């Protein structure tokens, strides 16, 4: 089994959309326009590919954007700098094989050289104790709760401190930026001319 975690490509979007919308109640559905927004705007949008098949994906955005999600907005009102995990989806056939942990290690590696916090939310309605436990064992702590909209689900708002960030900031970011290494690079420029 050959596993690759890589940036999403345009030709992956149909498979990503189908995977997202088959995920069930714990992931909000997307339409093609919303997915296109993420393709253009997300700072981190990577897929797990196993033997040529999209097995999962994770989307994250840095602070300072215009993403209208009420959970992203909550973090923006409470923290000046963060990387926000909007969603992670693993295909049913590949669940319980550690892909979630692999993604979280990868997004942490991305985030800790850019921002001091990693943020996300988990649904409390319906509550999934495995998801809550996963985030707790990965170092996230609850910093708030909110209901999504007037009648939407209750969510737990979580953050994880990234202690390496201070060293990176003092050593690199305050002195001209990160080294020119492929693993530190930003995503490739997205397609131009497509409206979100």
UniProtKB/TrEMBL annotation:
The keyword Transferase belongs to this UniProt entry's keyword annotation: yes
PROSITE patterns in the cross-refs: GNAT (PS51186)
Stretches assigned to coiled coil: none
Molecular functions per Gene Ontology: acyltransferase activity, transferring groups other than amino-acyl groups
Domain N-acetyltransferase intervals: 3-163
Alphabetically ordered keywords of this record: Transferase
Protein name, UniProt field: Putative acetyltransferase, GNAT superfamily
Organism: Frateuria aurantia (strain ATCC 33424 / DSM 6220 / KCTC 2777 / LMG 1558 / NBRC 3245 / NCIMB 13370) (Acetobacter aurantius)
